[in-house]
């Protein structure tokens, strides 16, 4: 009896895989990166600079103090890099599209700092709604942004003016 059961098990294990499309049955959708941008698709939304969550500085002085578009790019990329490497928040970031985040975060910073970009990303409430972010997570992100700005020699008062612009967004990005 034991031998028969073992033989049946062996046969089952060796049975050729059938062609059942389990992804289709379970509704699993494979997302494909755009061959040009390298980004994953997101649900459709209306692009609008108002999605950036703050009005831009007007004079151009802030953009200059952040080193123009090149300096802003260095800071936003560095912020993403620090977040992905930070054990306090890395788990939240790792599950998401870094390529898109690098682009949209740069656009948002560039737009708000008055360096002449348009922001084409989603609004803060809908892009953070499902992340379950806490105030402690936000504090970690702010520390990382301060580090990125410090490393780029952004004057301290300009750092603080930028942080003051972002502060009201905490009500949209902190969800628990
Ligand atoms: C004032 C603070 C914050 C600002 C200005 C900000 C800015 C942004 C921007 C511009 C995007 C891209 C939206 C899009 O893809 O269309 C984004 C997405 C994201 N943010 Fe934030 N963020 C903030 C706080 C946080 C915090 C505290 C966390 C977690 C620690 C976080 C985690 C993420 C993640 C994981 C995404 C990607 C979401 C996705 O791909 O669906 N953010 N954020």
UniProtKB/TrEMBL annotation:
Record: residues binding heme? 128
Under Pfam families, the record lists: Bac_globin
Q: Single GO molecular-function term?
A: heme binding
Matching entries from InterPro entries are given as: Globin-like_sf, Globin/Proto, Hemoglobin_trunc
Q: Does the keyword Iron apply?
A: yes
Provide this UniProt record's keywords sorted from A to Z: Heme, Iron, Metal-binding, Signal, Transport
Tell me which SUPFAM superfamilies the record gives.
Answer: Globin-like
In the record, which residues are listed under signal peptide?
1-17
Keyword Transport listed? The answer is yes
Q: What is the protein's given name? A: Group 1 truncated hemoglobin
This chain's source organism reads Qipengyuania atrilutea
């Amino acid at each position: 009896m034991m031998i028969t059961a073992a033989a049946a098990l062996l046969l089952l294990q060796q049975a050729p895989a059938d062609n059942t499309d389990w992804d289709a049955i379970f509704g699993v959708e494979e997302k494909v990166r755009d061959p040009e941008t390298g980004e994953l698709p997101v649900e459709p939304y209306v692009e609008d600079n108002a999605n950036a969550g703050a009005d831009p500085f007007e004079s151009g002085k802030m953009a200059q103090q952040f080193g123009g578009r090149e300096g802003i790019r260095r800071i936003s990329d560095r912020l993403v890099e620090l977040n992905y490497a930070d054990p306090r928040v890395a788990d939240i970031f790792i599950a998401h599209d870094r390529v898109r985040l690098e682009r949209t975060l740069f656009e948002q910073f560039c737009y708000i700092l008055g360096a002449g970009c348009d922001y084409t990303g989603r609004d803060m409430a809908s892009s953070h709604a499902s992340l379950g972010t806490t105030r402690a997570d936000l504090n970690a992100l702010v520390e990382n942004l301060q580090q990125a700005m410090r490393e780029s020699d952004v004057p301290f008062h300009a750092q603080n003016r930028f942080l003051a612009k972002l502060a009201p967004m905490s009500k949209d990005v902190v969800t628990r």
